[in-house]
Amino acid sequence: MAELNLFRFTPGDSALHRMDPRFKLAGLILISLTAGLADGWSGVALVTLFLAWTFRRSRLPRTTLLRELRRFVWLFAFILAARSFGHPEGEAGFWGFSRAGFAAGLLFDWRLMAVLAAALLLAATTPLTELRNGLLWFLHPLPWLPAARIGTMFSLTFALVPLLFEQAEAVREAQIARSIESVKNPLRRLTSLAWPVLRETFLRADELILAMEARCYTEQRSRPVFRSAAADRLSLGLMLALMVLVAACRMLGV
């Protein structure tokens, strides 16, 4: 099976694991906004230091963050290349390469990496049920949105997508065992992989629907009870202070 652990919960007993999911979702929004405000190296460095401190508090394995972020290496490389060549600022060198564009690409990749790292910390320290309950808490005051339905779709998506990747990897390994890799027609190879995966996807969806109906699933459910601590409010205050500090660095042009 595929070793797909992208944004998957890792059990633990750290302060970040015990944090109220509502505050963690609000913190992810604040960190994303702060990374967007950081248009200089000092601002991004402040965000990185805060995330490093948060990662240490989470007590996750040290290789977890790097292992998950490496899946986005091609995205980072594409952004860096797109910014480096043909950048409007600065003189273009060999093949249109621009030092200003290269620096802008590095900065953008760093900001994007910070947002992805924050999302990884949220998913790795929060069970899927708590994430859904926190999302429902934010959506319930909005009368025009079906909060329960959106929460169910959110939880099912995060629960089933890794299973689909595992199924695709299992099909690929089975086809390699049957020498399907020797087929030179790329369309036939793609079809032979896509059809079993799609078939298994629809079968799992039907099984899930039957299981939910058998358990009398309904959107009219009791709302979860949250208990926040002083440490949660302090952590949110630190993220607000970080946002103000980064905004000040941007205004000063640091």
UniProtKB/TrEMBL annotation:
<dbReference type="Pfam" id="PF02361">
    <property type="entry name" value="CbiQ"/>
</dbReference>
<keyword id="KW-1133">Transmembrane helix</keyword>
<feature type="transmembrane region" description="Helical">
    <location>
        <begin position="100"/>
        <end position="124"/>
    </location>
</feature>
<protein>
    <submittedName>
        <fullName>Biotin transport system permease protein</fullName>
    </submittedName>
</protein>
<keyword id="KW-0472">Membrane</keyword>
<feature type="transmembrane region" description="Helical">
    <location>
        <begin position="25"/>
        <end position="52"/>
    </location>
</feature>
<keyword id="KW-0812">Transmembrane</keyword>
<feature type="transmembrane region" description="Helical">
    <location>
        <begin position="234"/>
        <end position="253"/>
    </location>
</feature>
<feature type="transmembrane region" description="Helical">
    <location>
        <begin position="72"/>
        <end position="88"/>
    </location>
</feature>
<dbReference type="InterPro" id="IPR003339">
    <property type="entry name" value="ABC/ECF_trnsptr_transmembrane"/>
</dbReference>
<dbReference type="GO" id="GO:0005886">
    <property type="term" value="C:plasma membrane"/>
</dbReference>
